TrEMBL record:
The keyword Repressor does not apply. It is found in: Cell membrane. It comes from Mammaliicoccus fleurettii. The chain crosses the membrane at residues 7-25, 37-54, 75-94, 106-123, 130-147, 153-169, 181-200, 212-232, 244-261, 267-286. This is EamA family transporter RarD. Residues 6-146, 157-284 form the EamA domain. The keyword Ligase does not apply. Its main location: membrane. Belongs to the EamA transporter family.
Length: 302
């Protein structure tokens, strides 16, 4: 199998896992969301350190850590990335446990449009008229949901913004995926441990001898494996192709929310999604045209 095909396979599996995660988090609903988040951080750190040990990459991790301490801006950036992705994880877990999977799906549909908007602000990138229209359509969808449905999609916006910011930081921090994920878990570990200690002092721990706790022990692997698959895929295929594959995740969430978890879905919500989908289709089309133009230019130059 070619490296290109492997890249497609790895990225696809990553987004399939992310897409079906609502099913997993629904299995641990006996535990309160923020306690789940704390355990997710703890078990992710444990899993990544074990993985680095068994794959004999501890020296690579050590070198990456030394490099970070020599470059304070990069160190601050990776710490910020750790806490931003923690906000994303916590919001997603809360959304699943409070029956907002459709809002989570909407957030990950909006995410690529939020990413290009942040690139415009922070990286000075410029976009075509069609791409601005795509962003405007998504914005109209959010406004429609706010006024017509009577509910601002704060879960969607927080998920989209936090993941877009996380992606922006990862774009400018030059560090391998394994080390980056491990460091992000380690820098957020103290907050997780303090929160678990606080719960224990107030007899508020729900983790224990119950069905959900057994499933929660797998949260480290569930968190790390798709990130590793995504990193492996992203190295082998163009970023533009990854952009198309990423819609597998929110699409699976959308169908799981409606058909498996039985969330309410009415005409007004459908109209909101139609605006978002229209923006995504237009954005995807502009990327497709851009890929074709670059490919033809490359062939011509060759």
């Amino acid at each position: 199998m070619s490296e290109f095909k492997k890249g497609i396979m790895y990225a696809t599996f990553a987004y399939i896992i992310w897409g079906i995660l609502p099913i997993y988090w629904n299995l641990v609903n006996e535990i309160v969301p923020f306690e789940i988040l704390a355990h997710r951080i703890i078990w992710s750190a444990v899993f990544m350190l074990l993985l680095l040990t068994f794959t004999k990459q501890l020296s690579m991790f050590k070198n990456a850590t030394i490099k970070l301490f020599k470059q304070k801006k990069m160190l601050l950036a990776i710490i910020a990335a750790g806490y931003i992705i923690t906000v994303n994880w916590g919001t997603f877990i809360w959304a699943v446990n409070n029956h907002h999977v459709l809002q989570a799906s909407l957030g990950y549909y909006i995410n690529p449009l939020m990413s290009i908007f942040l690139a415009f602000i922070f990286l000075g990138e410029r976009f075509s008229k069609a791409q601005w229209i795509a962003i405007a359509l998504a914005f109209i969808g959010v406004i429609y949901m706010t006024f017509q449905v009577g509910e601002f999609p704060y879960v969607s916006i927080l998920l989209a913004t936090s993941f877009a910011l996380y992606g922006l930081i990862k774009k400018v921090v030059d560090i391998d995926a394994f080390s980056s994920i491990t460091i992000e878990c380690i820098v957020t570990l103290p907050a997780a441990l303090i929160y678990i200690f606080y719960l224990s002092q107030n007899d508020a721990i729900t983790f224990g001898m119950n069905h959900s706790s057994g499933w929660l022990l797998l949260s480290g692997a569930i968190t790390a494996i798709p990130l590793i698959l995504f990193s492996a895929g992203a190295r082998r295929i163009p970023l533009s192709l990854t952009g198309f594959i990423q819609y597998i995740g929110p699409t699976l969430m959308f169908f799981i929310g409606i058909f498996l978890l039985g969330e309410h879905f009415d005409v007004d919500q459908l109209i909101t999604f139609i605006f978002i989908w229209a923006g995504i289709i237009l954005y995807s089309y502009t990327k497709y045209v851009e890929i074709n133009r670059n490919r033809k230019k490359l062939i011509k130059d060759f």
